[in-house]
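Submission sheet (multi-component)
Chains listed below:
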Amino acid sequence: MVSTELKTKHGTVKLANPVITASGTCGFGRELIEWFDLNVLGGMSVKGTTLSPRDGNASPRIAECHSSLINSVGLQNPGIEAVVARELPWLRENYSGCIITNISGFSIDEYKQCVSKLNGTPTDIVEVNISCPNVHNGGMAFGTVPEAAAEVTRAVRECTDLPVFMKLSPNVTDITAIAKACVEAGADGLCLINTISAMRIDTLRRKPLLANVTGGLSGPAVFPVAVRMVYQVSHAVDVPIIGCGGVSSASDVIEMMMAGASAVEVGSATLTNPCACKEIVEALPEEMKRLRIENIKDIIGIC
Amino acid sequence: MNREKYTVRSNERLTAGNGFTPDLSVWKMVLSGDTSAITAPGQFVNIALPGRYLRRPISICDWDSTTITIVYREVGVGTLDMTKLAEGTQVEMLTGLGNGFKTVDCGTPLLVGGGVGLPPMLGLAKAYIAMGVKPIVVAGFNSASDVILTEDFASAGIELHISTMDGSAGTKGTVMEIIKDLEFDCFQACGPKPMLKALAELPKPGQVSVEERMGCGFGVCMGCSCKTTEGVKRVCKDGPVFDKEMMIW
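Outcome: structure written.
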């Protein structure tokens, strides 16, 4: 059995399998559908959306590192109106699994307006990004102070009956303090981790490689950091966790779930192989057999 | 688009390096495998290299039913790895990425390549010849030692008009020194931005192929976005070829 579930006060979301595309690595599904049938996916967390359309940061926005990359895209997105009008209906028509709509804001009011527009849309879970390292005056600022994280959570919680998952930043002293603050403020679940603040330098030009100077590190290099944080948070709070950060194989999925995740998001792996998520889903039964796991739900937080 | 395994058939140095590592030399690699996903000249492949996290996007120089030719410059760790791929090595690539050039029914097309922007012009020139149209092809380089692909164009029945910045081969100066005396009806170009901008200022319709640092190469990561007159576009998916009117220089 590869099916899993995210059991919350605002409903139980059942997933055919624990593999979810991470926000920012699957667009709204239109590109990945050219590579495989989206219905193999347990869930899809779509591109982070803000109230107004955003062009994102200047280029270059991508820097490669060992087993990882740094991005400074800066939340390029068509804005919530376009996402609600065009993208979510298209995705629902082409995908029957769990749709996670990821939103971001630059003020409490923006978060509220964004989430309010999701009521009545084909959204199964709202994922609230308080951890984007690539936008100024917002994004991660809300995710690095417990009181601010709680304030966003409370505000969003008041505007919807959909399950609300807060996406946490690893760029903090103690992620469990942020996690607890979010849960106490009404978060149904948590998703962690977002990218780790990072930087590369172009030694020939003697300048930062990214136009934005810094960006967010993701990929297999951050997997052990994510496992550690999921483990710590799962011991600190009692809500479902979506584990995210460098997951690249069926074995990684299982490790992340043993750390305490009820499901996982796969991000950077898709950027290196458009079929990564599909291949991970396909490899899961064999890996479970090898590890003598009959029901994947049995291993959540088992270690 | 597809993702398949390809076999390196040849991988040869075309120009001398500068003695450093990477040495900025230009190389030509021929790979065999499934080419059915390639639909237009100017598209690119995205090559997976063992030990490198991201793929390397390289424009397609030429292709037929069983082989793909790419020409690349050794500019960093990834392209340096590529120079070491021996004949018979298997590599995995995404092919048929990007929109590519459209052949245009405009009279006489002018194709312009600057440096390693020249390779995709070979596939485009061949596409025109297959339509019974003979394009004019202009290639700009820094120096005679940087000149590439003259024989490949000659075998396709095309004589390259060459300019070099130092005057050591062809006309001295930029490609514009040659182009100002040519009669043509539209242009298609790939090369450095100043070259593309100078061409776009000519009162002729044109398409330009642009370059940007990429993440995925198939449109999901928004890593290679560029601003255009029609909003933000992804170089890998909406491009790399854009009508000149769309460019914001």
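Remark: Chain B has five helices and 15 strands.
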